[in-house]
Amino acid sequence: MIKIAVDLHGGDNAPHIVLDGIEMFLEQFDDVEIHLYGDESKNHIQHPNLKMHHTTEVITMDDEPVRAIRRKKDASMVRAAESVKLKETDAIVSAGNTGALMAAGLFVIGRIKGIERPALALTLPTINDEGFMLLDMGANADAKPEHLVQYAKMATIYAKKNRGIKNPTVGLANIGTEDKKGNQLARDTFNLLKEDDSIHFIGNVESKALLNHAADIVVTDGFTGNMILKTLEGTANNIFKMLKETLMSSAKTKLAAALVKKDLMQLKNKMDYSEYGGAVLFGVDGIVIKAHGSSDKKAFFNALKQARQSAKEDVTNLLKQEVTHE
């Protein structure tokens, strides 16, 4: 039985969205035991595969991450992370404070031996519906070339096991596709990736090509990765905002909007990265899934499904064996 620890109080819409997502998940999967950490008075689910663990503290979005992890010992997020550390559960899923969850991964669960820097990875949508994995998205603002190579190796294993891609392609985010482009970090990383036979490296990729599925995996430092993510997210949101304003501007456009409403919703869903699940914190000795802070029940369901698949494929031990050669 796979066991997933869930932070009841993580996210903008907790706890009801978390509970709705869990109910949806338990209706579909009977091989998972959910260990729910939080205020038991907030839980309305009665299910044989759900175990409630009462906690008395909550880490908020405004809390300073490291301080909160160290001081709020009975917080739902901390207790859930401890269960992964003690091997009582296989994974943790939270939609809470991203920095705090990364700190819990590092300081409570602990890093995999041999992994120098953790990386936060997210699968983003592409025009062809295949999606691509971007990392690092902000776990480390600075990185060395060898860190980016480790990111590529970890993401390759994950893409094979979680997304069923036999030989995932890896691209290096850069300002041009030519081999010698970019700053010193990019040029040095390019050379290391090119020499590594365990990675299907296809070269540099520009940000304008990402949504066209330039590669299955795109690696970069956390500063650049977070900028790419926020730019894509902001652009998509503003395009739909402008489109809505245009369609609501007159009786004629309102009529047109009514006719294409279903198609527009399909397009919006296609560009929603929560359809792929949450972000994964690579490099820690357990499965850590960060659901989006504004997740609805379907997005949280997808994050739980992602945790289940990772545990089922024993991704953490695969990373230990193949990345660190243990």
From TrEMBL:
Pfam families: FA_synthesis (PF02504)
Keyword field: Acyltransferase, Cytoplasm, Lipid biosynthesis, Lipid metabolism, Phospholipid biosynthesis, Phospholipid metabolism, Transferase
Domain of life: Bacteria
Metabolic or biological pathway: Lipid metabolism; phospholipid metabolism
Example GO molecular function: phosphate:acyl-[acyl carrier protein] acyltransferase activity
Reaction(s) the record says it catalyses: a fatty acyl-[ACP] + phosphate = an acyl phosphate + holo-[ACP]
Coiled coil start-end: none
Residues making up the signal peptide according to the UniProt record: none
Subcellular location: Cytoplasm
Enzyme Commission no: 2.3.1.274
Similarity comment: family membership: Belongs to the PlsX family.
Quaternary structure, from the entry: Homodimer. Probably interacts with PlsY.
HAMAP family in alphabetical order: PlsX
Function text: Catalyzes the reversible formation of acyl-phosphate (acyl-PO(4)) from acyl-[acyl-carrier-protein] (acyl-ACP). This enzyme utilizes acyl-ACP as fatty acyl donor, but not acyl-CoA.
Stated name of the protein: Phosphate acyltransferase
Source organism: Macrococcus armenti
Record lineage: Bacteria, Bacillati, Bacillota, Bacilli, Bacillales
Gene: plsX
